[in-house]
Structure formats: structure tokens, C-alpha cells
Design a protein that fits this description.
single chain, 27% helix, 217 residues, seven-stranded mixed beta sheet, 11 strands, 7 helices, DHBP synthase, alpha/beta
Length: 217
């Protein structure tokens, strides 16, 4: 996949997405492509998280500094455990808030590309509560990247039209499920420490011991 030309746009039901549509999107990802898709907050950019070339393409599309890690979506705690080491405090937060807009930062496993973690050795991930986002991960069967579908510094998009305005000829596929809710981004929590520390307050209210600075979406 190269993204040359206007991306294909497929309408998808936001509540009960078609298995055929999700399967087609997963096929694009397996080919190294990038798919714009809806989450419970904004539209995001999906690529295979364990594909270094696809990850590099996300950084290039967004103009994102290589020092800033990409957030990742999984479909379950079991899938999360294939890419990160799950601590007991993190497991408790997962049980309480997943699926949902809570991103947990945990120590990455050796198989995770260094580019995905920006060399930090940690990875931020969550399970989305949006049926399309969750279904896309399930159809692929492995983690996908999930940064917001906008150039770095621009406003995150809530419609497929917004995505196309940013990336008119550089994506492979856009899943159009209508407008997303927008609002606050996911809450970001550092679960590599005990007790976990809030890095960014967001859409999910989480009780944690402390707070410290966080990167942008």
C-alpha cells in the first residue's frame, strides 16, 4: 500500500460494523497500509503496531517527532500481554475501565519495535469501547496504532470529512462511521510505577497517587 491517490472511503455502521468491511480494512493493514477509523473520541490512524515500516509511515503522515511514542489499541488483556508486561495495579485498572478511554503506559516486550516506543521501552495502550475500533483490532488479530488522524499540532478530527481534509491523498482507506463525540482525549496513566501516576487527565476519571507532565495526543 502506498496511499497514492484519494483514499477509498467505506461507510460503516458505528454500532454493528459489517464483518466484511472490517475484514477488508484488516487486509489493508496486513499489506502495510494505513486506515483512518473512528474511536469513542476522535478518528485515529491505524497501522500494524508490530510492523516497523507501517509505524514509520504513521510518524511521516502526522509529522510526529520520533521522540513521541504512538498509542496502541488492543482487543483484550490477553492481547495486551503479548506486547507489554502487565503489573497487578495495571490489571486492576484494566478490569475497571476497559473497554474505555483509559490508556495505560507499561513496559514493552522485546518484540515491540523501538520506533513505536520512541526508544522509551514503554508502550501506551487501551481497549476502545467503539465497535468499529474494537472490531478492527479483532479482525486483524493484533495491536494497531491509534494516534488521532491529524497532523501534529492540528485539531483532532471528529468526522471522515475532517480526516480527508488533512490527508486527501496519503491514506489507503477511511472507515466512515459518522461523527464521533470529540471531547477530552483518553486519560493517560503511567502504570510502570506503583501506585500508578496520572500523566494526563482525560475522558475517564481515574484515581491515582499523583500527576506529572504528559505528551500530546
Amino acid at each position: 500500500m502506498t496511499g497514492a491517490g484519494r483514499p477509498r472511503v467505506i461507510a460503516v455502521d458505528p454500532v454493528a460494523p459489517s464483518a466484511d468491511v472490517l475484514g477488508a480494512a484488516a487486509a489493508v493493514l496486513r499489506g502495510g497500509g494505513v486506515v483512518a477509523f473512528p474511536t469513542e473520541t476522535f478518528y485515529g490512524l491505524a497501522a500494524r503496531a508490530l510492523d516497523s515500516r507501517a509505524v514509520a509511515r504513521i510518524f511521516e503522515l502526522k509529522g510526529r517527532p520520533e521522540s513521541k511514542p504512538l498509542l496502541v489499541l488492543v482487543d483484550s488483556v490477553a492481547m495486551a500481554e503479548t506486547v507489554i508486561h502487565v503489573s497487578d495495579p495495571a490489571r486492576a485498572l484494566m478490569a475497571r475501565h476497559w473497554p474505555g478511554a483509559l490508556t495505560l503506559v507499561l513496559t514493552a516486550r522485546a518484540r515491540v519495535p523501538a520506533a513505536l516506543t520512541a526508544g522509551t521501552g514503554t508502550l501506551g495502550l487501551r481497549v476502545s469501547s467503539h465497535a468499529v475500533a474494537q472490531g478492527l483490532v479483532q479482525a486483524l488479530g493484533e495491536p494497531v496504532t491509534a494516534p488521532s488522524a491529524n497532523p501534529t499540532g492540528a485539531s483532532p478530527p471528529t468526522t471522515a470529512a475532517d480526516v480527508l481534509a488533512y490527508f486527501a491523498d496519503t491514506l489507503d482507506l477511511v472507515l466512515d462511521a459518522g461523527p464521533t463525540s470529540g471531547g477530552a482525549p483518553s486519560t493517560l496513566v503511567d502504570a510502570t510505577v506503583d501506585p500508578p501516576t496520572i500523566l494526563r487527565q482525560g475522558a475517564v476519571a481515574v484515581r491515582a497517587a499523583g500527576r506529572r507532565g504528559a505528551g500530546a495526543k
